[in-house]
Specification:
Blueprint lengths: L1 H67 L3 H23 L1 H9 L1 H28 L2 H8 L2 H12 L6 H19 L10 H19 L5 H4 L1 H20 L10 H29 L1 H7 L2 H14 L5 H17 L1
Helix pairs in contact: 1-4, 1-5, 1-11, 1-12, 1-13, 2-4, 2-10, 2-11, 4-5, 4-8, 4-10, 5-8, 5-13, 6-8, 6-12, 7-14, 10-11, 11-12
């Protein structure tokens, strides 16, 4: 009798222990899911605002090109130096250890230099030149072709063939580029050939910005990685450009546009976008980044009075549809 009672109590204790364990596991899963949802929300919001702010940068650059004859190389170089400083001043004050570790680690340093050359420099120089030769909206839409390159890279690295929707996206990308470049008439170019070339270079740079730093972003964070890339690119290019020798004559409105371009269109745009890449991955970040051409087109039309033809809008729409198909 006593033995049966002890066994019953032992069974009840085991059941209680199992129930407590299940409850702990359920609580742990809920916490993990909550953290994951929070990370996704932050990543989506960061990428969204990063794309909107990048659209501002194209409009500000167009304003400076049209009204002050600002040199493209000068603008690119000073933009990188100022943005890099905005990133690194707080880092050196509060996160110096990880910054030093990045430059001591040979592999990570190599990744960082590749990002500075093939990502930051190529993207910014190509984009600003595309803005100069075309307009902010067209340059930003051309940059969205990065998604085709990211898709190709993903197919190669995962050893798989493109899916049907991805192939359809490639067709739409080329169709959209065709309408933007030719206005629907294959015998003419509605944008300068050099504008088309540098727009494609900007897309290559943007793809590199999303792909190259993936391995080091979780380790060092978006601020250190992005700020280091900008500062390195700015310092190297300043050796050749020497921006202090040929500053443009800017009035108050010109400096205001430059400050918005640097702080909002570079510092905040890159910081938020790279945080999005870290939190939700390069493919999702690129999808949400389609807000860039919308922002650039709207701000360019409102602030600068830029007029877009029907074929331009059609090309924009095809490329944005391409984005939703390929990611």
């Amino acid at each position: 009798m006593a033995k049966d009672t002890i066994e019953d109590m032992s069974g009840e204790s085991a059941l209680g222990t199992d129930a407590a364990a299940r409850k702990r596991r359920r609580t742990l899963r809920e916490r993990v899911n909550a953290l994951e949802n929070k990370r996704l929300v932050i990543g989506v919001a960061s990428t969204l605002f990063g794309g909107i702010f990048w659209g501002f940068s194209g409009t500000c650059a167009s304003f400076l090109f049209e009204n002050y004859q600002v040199d493209t190389a000068w603008l690119m170089c000073t933009r990188q130096l100022c943005s890099g400083a905005l990133f690194l001043i707080p880092i050196l004050l509060s996160d110096r250890q990880r910054f030093v570790e990045l430059w001591r680690n040979r592999h990570d340093r190599r990744v960082m230099l590749l990002l500075a050359a093939l990502g930051v420099l190529l993207n910014q120089f190509g984009y600003l030149l595309a803005v100069r030769y075309t307009n902010a909206g067209t340059a930003t839409v051309m940059q969205c072709l990065q998604l085709v390159l990211i898709m190709i890279y993903a197919c190669i690295t995962t050893h798989r063939a493109p899916r049907r929707r991805e192939l359809a996206g490639v067709v739409l990308a080329f169709a959209g580029t065709f309408f933007i470049a030719t206005g629907g008439n294959p015998s003419t170019l509605t944008i300068p050939p050099e504008g088309l070339v540098v727009g494609l270079l900007a897309a290559v740079g943007a793809a590199c910005m999303s792909i190259i730093p993936v391995s080091i972003l979780p380790k060092y964070g978006s601020s250190i990685v992005t700020g280091s890339g900008m500062l390195v690119s700015g310092v190297v290019t300043s050796i050749f450009i020497q921006p202090w020798n040929n500053p443009p004559a800017l009035d108050a409105a010109g400096w205001e546009a430059f400050i918005v371009l640097t702080v909002v269109g570079s510092f905040l745009a890159y910081l938020l976008y790279m945080q999005g890449v870290k939190d939700i991955g390069s493919m999702r970040a690129s999808l949400i980044g389609t807000v860039e051409p919308v922002s650039a087109t709207i701000t360019s039309a409102i602030v600068l009075g830029t007029v877009f033809a029907g074929t331009d809008i059609l090309g924009f729409a095809l490329i944005i549809i391409m984005v939703f198909l390929t990611v």
